[in-house]
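Let us work through a complete example step by step.
Step 1: write down the sequence.
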Amino acid sequence: MINGTGNRMTQEIARQARMAGNIALKQAQVSTGKRLQRASDDPVAMARTAELKRAQSNDVARAANINIGVTLAAQADTQLKTMSDLLARAKELTVAGANGGLSAADRTTMAAEISAMADEIDAIASTTSVTGQALFAPNSNIAIRFDDTTAFAPVPGRDEIFAPAGMSISQSMRDAALAISSGNSGNIGVSLTAINDAVNHSADMQAKVGLNAARIDRLRETGAQRAISLSEERSRLEDTDLSSAIAELNGMTLTLEAAQAAFARINRRTLMDFLG
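Step 2: predict the structure and record it as tokens.
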């Protein structure tokens, strides 16, 4: 009888200890706002949460690359628009330079303006990007990774833009300036064709950068949607439902207090009470 009573008391003490442990865990869940306090709480959810954390970390790096891509494309678009304006003016002057009635002074002035614009285009070709590197890299720009399957250079390389088919645009402009200065109508005609081609090429390059910018914008939207989805799933797995948890905590506390009160009353009974 005494052994049986002692065993029941030991079991009750162990049960109350477990209840107290569960209450402590629930209190931690409420105070931290996190349902998952340790791997044993929910191994499957904990594993999935770890995967989501890695995915979110990767998304942070991708978002940084996307921001760089957007900035580079915008900077390149501005520079290429300037080049298009310069080429349009050079074409206008070259057409005017074909007029055989121009004075030598007029030809010299027009040639000087075209040469100055050629220098401006060379300066554009050497523009430094916001990253501190060349905006239009020699040969070709390095591709940027935007997600697991997408990597490309937002801005074409210097040669592709400023020397299509190996022909330097700025040199074509200087050739036009020389032809106008000398009044050589044949060379002016050749230069006009070259500059007209450069005008069209510049428009093509600006359109290419614009398409890249639009593509990056779509990737940014996709990334933002993915970030929301990952955040929501992670929250469902690891965040505490406070209203439910507080209700559970109150219930568990009342149950423990009742058990402790009953145990205290039983423990006050004497040995003779048990023997009787």
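Step 3: interpret the result. Helices lie at 2-32, 43-97, 104-125, 158-162, 169-182, 185-238, 242-267, 271-275.
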